[in-house]
Specification:
The radius of gyration is 26 Å and the shape is globular. The protein contains 26 helices and 24 strands. It has five domains: 98 residues, Periplasmic binding protein-like II (D-Maltodextrin-Binding Protein, domain 2), CATH 3.40.190.10; 102 residues, 3-Layer(aba) Sandwich (D-Maltodextrin-Binding Protein, domain 2), CATH 3.40.190; 128 residues, 3-Layer(aba) Sandwich (D-Maltodextrin-Binding Protein, domain 2), CATH 3.40.190; 94 residues, Periplasmic binding protein-like II (D-Maltodextrin-Binding Protein, domain 2, 3-Layer(aba) Sandwich), CATH 3.40.190.10; 167 residues, Lysozyme (Orthogonal Bundle). Helix 5 links the parallel strand 8 and strand 9. The protein starts with 29 loop residues before the first strand and ends in an 8-residue tail after the last helix. The longest helix is centred in the last third of the chain and has 21 residues. By secondary structure, the protein is α/β, with parallel strands linked by helices. 38% of the residues lie in helices and 19% in strands. The chain has a six-stranded mixed beta sheet with strand order 3-16-13-17-24-18. A five-stranded mixed beta sheet has the order 9-8-10-7-11.
């Protein structure tokens, strides 16, 4: 097993110091970025120290792209806001083992548990729970062969559940009521995703999972399906020590006053007053690289960031509702499934006639014709004659082209249903399509990733992009317009716009660090050698990855906020106990800890080389997207355990809507991890050759 203890800052429960402990903790490995302490006092003791410590499992992230609900990160932000409301500073403590959260709280390692933590009878014996922040159903998960059967019709059934979980409590009650049911208790660290996958591949006969998790974990055509509801209202809450009565009282007051309690998600046509009462703004959007997507576990997108800032200014949380086309988004809005559409919607007369009530514009764009790099620019729109333009007929581009044809201009429109702008641009770049159309901001975004396309013509005048509401939502529309008036082209707006549409997404290439026998291959060879040895990794491979990530610049920062030599996200660094990631030692240590964590997420049966390729791809795009690609590869008849020629080809497909819509983690710019793995391997082999050394045998 790869060594991990040398890299983490451990909290030794028997001592008052965090770092430098030579005794492993009694309960589980916990980590923080500050000098932690043992404290079991109530709120006055916390005020004396100036901190409240928030406890969560490491990488407490959704097992998929949130498509209908409030992202877990919103609750973490609310917890931080609560601590700041009390005039104190929030400090995060992370634990490896979910089942040990209660023990850690009672031993004084942290003060409040903040995660998807169910209220159970067993936990209530040792913890005090807040007012519930959510209520979920627990459902049986069974093989597809048992779909639609009542529990009494399923015959003998073994239900596998994690030790110490709320699922175990439900399964135990179920077994007492039904003689045909027995319970298998699994390791407490097993995740909801592993439970669903276990049922799908036949490892488990059945299991139990929260309904909100099943929304993202169940594949439409997968072998695991949702069975009967076993618990209709399992409460989710924050938890503290029983002695923290003053703290609990403040938490309950805050949860009530700040409306943290989750709405039930039922359809309701609401205007501003009802939205304020619920404390939740339901945002309808689309999973694409401009509006809303997941990258390295972070939820991102220009439209998402902008509407989230609007919600924040009004002390609202964002509930995301994902739909796949403009017509599906508007249907959801009309049905009351959401309050506003935030998905780069162009204002058109046809949409206004159809009942779309637009806000003021928050973006002005020009439609552009996109061709291959090197193609001759069109001097006028008349030069379009005889060409073919590929577009999705549901977009405003199609209307523009039809209007042009109506003037008598002779050219062809190639209708590509369900195609995204990125997919069509990719098709132009590889010669599949002659031309396509894109809004200028989307064309600019693609140009931050690639240099094989060109803008051949720009249409005038500029068109306006706005948020969409129902006509009766006059007050909401007024609030949206006020926000746009205050913030359009202001500091936050400009920084966010540049982040997605201007800044290059890859470090600019420059003359490579020349490698010669007897010369270092980077300025950080000694540091990388030392740190890589702790994990049993080839330091030359890590150096190749470091060049790919930062070009050996410790001060490098990505468009998404990743920092340092190995471009670690600050939140990721914190979960391994590291801050100040631009410090070379911190940046390398955090990156290697994350590489090790990712490597352990893949099955032990994998060939070591394949495991490394998957780990590199996961480092670039996120573990969830790689698992999506492995599942897709298997469905396509390819080998899910091989990267080159198999999973990498499936990864490329996940940028296409028809595949991204069915993937747990949604859209990913698949060409990036494919390029990333290939270039790191090639450079690594170049290092080995130049140094006259042997490569790692499996590579």
């Amino acid at each position: 097993m790869l060594m991990r203890l040398g890299i983490f800052m451990l909290i030794c429960l028997g001592f008052m110091l965090l770092a430098g402990c030579d005794k492993e903790p009694e309960v589980g490995e916990v980590v923080s970025t500050f000098d932690n302490y043992l404290e079991t006092g109530d709120l006055p003791a916390m005020k004396e120290r100036g901190f409240i410590r928030l406890l969560a499992p490491r990488f407490d992230e959704p097992s998929g792209l949130p498509r209908d609900g409030i992202p877990a990160s919103e609750y973490q932000h609310q917890a931080e806001a609560f601590v700041e409301y009390l005039g104190l500073e929030p400090r995060w403590v992370y634990a490896d083992n979910f089942s040990e959260l209660g023990t850690l709280i009672n031993q004084g390692v942290a003060d409040i548990i903040i995660t998807n933590y169910s209220v159970t009878k067993a936990r209530k014996k040792t913890l005090a729970f807040s007012t519930p922040v959510n209520a979920v159903q627990e459902r049986l998960v069974v093989p597809r062969a048992l779909a639609d059967l009542a529990l009494t019709e399923m015959g003998s059934l073994i239900v596998s559940v994690p030790d110490g979980s709320a699922y175990q409590e439900t399964a135990t009650k179920l077994a007492k009521r039904h003689q045909s049911i027995s319970v298998e208790v699994l390791d407490s660290s097993i995740s909801d995703e592993a439970l669903v996958n276990g049922v799908a591949n036949g490892e488990f006969a059945a299991s139990i999972v929260d309904s909100n998790m099943l929304d993202v974990l169940l594949d439409e055509d997968g072998e695991a399906v949702a069975g009967p509801v076993l618990n209709r209202k399992r409460r989710i809450a924050w938890a503290v020590r029983p002695s923290s009565t003053e703290l609990l009282n403040q938490i309950n007051q805050y949860i009530t006053s700040e409306r943290i309690i989750t709405s039930d998600g039922s359809a309701e046509a609401r205007d501003w007053e009802a939205i304020g009462e619920r404390g939740v703004l339901r945002v309808i959007t689309s999973n694409n690289p401009a509006s809303y997507f997941m990258w390295r576990g972070e939820l991102m997108g220009f439209d998402y960031d902008l509407i989230k800032d609007f919600a924040k200014q009004h002390r609202l949380r964002v509930r995301v509702v994902v739909r796949d086309s403009p017509s599906a988004m508007f249907s959801a809005l009309e049905a009351g499934e959401g309050d506003v559409i935030a998905a780069s919607m162009t204002i058109t007369s046809d949409r206004q006639l159809a009942g779309w009530a637009f806000s003021k514009r928050y973006l002005e764009v020009n439609e552009q014709l996109i061709g291959e790099a090197g193609d001759v620019p069109l001097g006028s729109v008349q030069a379009l004659a005889g060409r073919t333009v590929a577009v999705n007929p549901e977009t405003a581009y199609y209307d523009t082209l039809k209007d042009l044809q109506a003037t008598g201009l002779q050219f062809d429109i190639q209708e590509v249903f369900q195609a995204s702008t990125e997919m069509l641009i990719e098709g132009v770049a590889n010669g599949e399509y002659d031309l396509t159309m894109a809004d200028s901001h989307l064309a600019a975004m693609e140009s931050t990733y690639r240099d094989d396309i060109a803008v051949l013509f720009q249409f005038e005048p500029a068109k306006e992009i706005a948020w969409v509401t129902r006509e009766p939502q006059k007050i909401l529309r007024k609030q949206l317009n006020n926000y746009i008036k205050r913030n359009y082209r202001g500091l936050f707006y400009n920084v966010t716009y540049n982040r997605y549409f201007v800044e290059k997404k890859t470090i600019a290439a420059h003359e490579a660090y020349r490698v010669e026998p007897g010369r270092n291959i980077s300025p950080y060879d000694d540091l990388v050698r030392e740190k890589s040895l702790e994990y049993g990794l080839d330091w030359r491979l890590i150096t190749s990855q470091m060049y790919q990530e930062s070009r050996f610049n410790p001060n490098a920062r990505s468009f998404a906020g990743a920092q340092g030599l190995l471009q670690v996200m600050p939140r990721t660094g914190r979960q391994f106990g590291y801050s100040n990631l631009t410090d070379p030692e911190n940046g390398v240590s955090a990156g290697l800890a994350y590489i090790d964590w990712l490597e352990q997420r893949f099955p032990a049966r994998l060939d070591l080389a394949e495991k490394l390729y998957f780990t590199l791809a996961a480092y670039n795009a996120g573990h969830g997207h790689v698992e999506d690609a492995r599942r897709l590869a298997q469905r396509l008849g390819k080998n899910p355990d091989k990267w080159f020629g198999h999973v990498e080809e499936a990864m490329l497909l996940l940028s296409k809507p028809q595949y991204a819509q069915q993937a747990r983690y949604g859209y990913v710019r698949g060409r990036e991890p494919v390029k990333y793995v290939r270039e790191i391997k090639t450079r690594y082999l170049g290092y080995v050759s130049a140094l006259g050394e042997q490569k790692q045998p499996e590579l």
